[in-house]
Write a structure and sequence with these properties.
about 375 residues; 10 helices; 4-stranded antiparallel beta sheet; alpha+beta; single chain
Length: about 375
Amino acid sequence: MKYNIQTTLTGRVWWKPFLLYILLSFALILPLELTLMRIDNPDNTIPLLPLFLFIAVLLALRVALEAVFTLILGRILVSSVSCNGIQPVLGGSTQEFVTLNLVCFVRTCITLGFYGPRYIKRHTDYLVEHCSIDGTGCSFSGTARSLFTYIYVGLVLPLIFWMMLFIAAAVAEQLVAESARVLPEVLMGVLGIGIFFLCIPFFYYVIRWYFNISWKEKTLEWNTEFWQSFFFLSGQLFLLLITLGIAWPVFAVRCWEYFAERTVIKEEGRFHSIPQVQPRQSAQLQHQGSDIRQGHRKRRKFFSLVQSCITAWTFFASSSVHSPHLITASVSFVEGLFYNTENLRICSSEQPNYDSIRICSSFEGTCSSSKTNKSSIGT
C-alpha cells in the first residue's frame, strides 16, 4: 500500500514573506553593526549605557521578528501538504509565541547561554503541540538535557580543543625559521575545514533530537547509525568543498534521500500484543489481522504528514541564509525540491509485514526497510 503525499508548496508561494523577512533582518542588522562600530571607536563621545540599551532593543526586535516569521512560514508549509485530502493544521497565537521567545531570550542572556537548550526545547514544544492532524495534536519528547549535551559536549568543547591546537600551531609556526613558515591563509583554511567537519556530529545529533515527535500511538524517529551517517556526510561535504559550493543542489538532494529512507514510524503497544498463530485459531486470527491492518493503514497515512513537514522544514531552516546574493539560488532550488516532495510516500509490501515499516523517497525509485524489534516496541 502506498500513500502519496501531495504538496502545493513552490518558491512562488513563500518567496514574498521570505524576502520580506530578509529585508527586515538587514534593516535591524545595519544599525546594530553601526552601533557596535561606534562602541569600538576610541573617539566615541556618546555614553556607553544608551548604546547598550539600543543594542538590547535591536536584539529583542530581531527575536520577535524571527518568531513572527517562523509562524508565518510554518503555516504556509503545513497548509500546503495533504494526504488523501487530509491536511495538518499549525495553530497558536502570534502574540503568545513572541512573548515566549522574548522571555526565553532574556533568560538565555542572563544565564550566559546556559538556558539556550531549554529555550530551544520550549520553542519546539510550542510548534509541535500546536500542530494537529485530523483533530489530534502532536507531542514532542526531546529533552533539554540531551540537547545540552549535544551543544556543549558535542560542539563547544571540541571547538575549544581545536582552537587550542590551532593557537599552539600558530605559535610554533612563529618560532621556526622564516623560510619554513606556513602562509597564514593555509592555517586559516585548515582551521575552517576542521571546524566544518567537527560540526558534523553536532548537526547529526541535533537534527536527530528533533525527530522525537509522537501522534497518538506513533512516534517519528531516525533509524540511523552514527558512523555510517558521519562518513556519508563527510563525503558529501568533501564534494561540496572541492566544487566550491557548486554541488550544493546535489548535496541537499542526496542528504534528503539518505535520511528520508531512514525515517521510521514506531508504533507503541501494538506489534508485541499480537498473539502467536495456533492451528485452531488461524481462521479467527486471520480475520482479526485483517481488521488490524485496515486500521493500521488508515492511521499511518495521517502520521506520514508529520514526516513530510519535519523533513521539509529541516531543509528550509538550513536554507534560510542571510547572504543577499544567495536568495535567488535558494528560492529557485527550494521550489524544485518542494515540488518533488509529492514523490515521498510510505511504502509497505503487498504481504503485510508487522516487523517493518518503510518510508522512502523516489529520487532513485528505491526504498530501504527498517526492522523493528517486537520486544522493544512500547518501551
